[in-house]
Amino acid sequence: MSDPPPSPAVRVPVWVVAGLFLRLGATSFGGPAAHIALMEEEVVRRRGWLTRGEFLDLLGAVNLIPGPHSTELAIHIGARVAGWAGLVAAGFCFLLPAAVVTLGLAWAYVAYGSRPEAAGVLAGVQPVALALVARACWVLGRSAVKSRGLALLGVLSAAAVLAGAGELVVLFAAGLLAVVANRAVRPRGALAVVPAVPLFAAGVAGQPVGLGPLFLAFLKIGAVLFGSGYVLIAFLRADFVDRTGWLTERQLLDAVAVGQLTPGPVSSAATFIGYLLAGPEGAAAATAGMFLPAFVLVAATRPLVPRLRRSPVAGAFLDGVNVASLALMAVAAGQIGWATRSWPGLLVFAASLAVLLTTRLNPAWLVVTAAAVGWALGA
């Protein structure tokens, strides 16, 4: 029988939890790493809601399940300090600001996207968005590729995707291969974590986009999205560009670029895409589908955190899934970059990537600068 998770030293009113995560959701620019750092500062150092060890346990737990990690960490923290009401309040309030801002940008994109100054903003931000993905691949790869075997697994995963293999098949196979390669023996009572099996398709190309298929498409993605939030690009490109034709390469890159202009999780791009495809109702359906699995998975795994942390099978599987996720992300970004290539964009991409790799500048400033320059050139 596993030990229960440690109880928090304090019990926090749910309205206090809601207020904190609403503020974090409105001000957390810079991606998941920045979100996690801000949460640690607030709940461990400033408020003492959790010990550093408890915080790290929760961070380790979200790394072992699919979904947007910073959002799941917020949900875990809310649940730990304020129970079930805190679970809902923390997650909802962390997501709300990004969803609202993204919805406004989606409306502006549809209404004014053809204007020269708006096109200039997007043209400026697009290569920066790709540079952020490239930086994420580099930084995460240094941690994920722990051995030559995992490096080879990443290369094989990329080759499989380029050859036409499905993303879920590649992730699942990479996890199993990593378990076999590490000769992980499942201890009695330990848990193996595997990605959800898709029970539905994203839709059929050429058909109108209904709310049901849109919700299910994002529900599938939210249930299997391992790794960085930028891995979302690989799934979006496969489902919405290649398989269904609901989006063009340019629209997908615009969605990613707009996501860089908002605080909160990168996965809020779901709101933007939902609005493009089916208006406000589509935005609601896509957002709900994208983030519902995070709430369900956190609720389901809360009692299992100690066992997940001790499971060698789960750890080995995660190693394989992580390198495969990075391969998917790199391939998708390369394909989008090639489809939308231009010499000015290439120069902005190279300059942005150099700044991101050599300085500690908050990426939000880079995005805002590129947007302002694009606006000025387009006006």
Structural class: mainly alpha
Number of strands: 0
What is the overall silhouette?
globular
Beta-strand fraction estimate: under 5%
Largest sheet features: none
Task: List segments where confidence is low: pLDDT < 50 over at least 5 consecutive residues.
Answer: 1-8, 184-207
Overall pLDDT level: 77
Number of domains: 1
Q: Encode the helix/strand succession as letters.
A: HHHHHHHHHHHHHHH
Which bin fits the share of residues in helices? over 70%
Radius of gyration: 20 Å
End-to-end separation in angstroms reads 66 Å
Number of helices: 15
Structural commentary:
By secondary structure, this protein is an all-alpha fold. The chain has one domain. It contains 15 helices and no strands. It has helices at 14-27, 32-46, 52-63, 69-112, 116-144, 148-162, 167-181, 211-224, 232-243, 249-259, 269-301, 305-310, 312-339, 343-358, 363-378. Helix 3 (52-63) packs across helix 4 and helix 8 packs across helix 11 (269-301). It is globular and about 55 Å long. The N and C termini lie far apart (66 Å). 51% of the residues are buried.
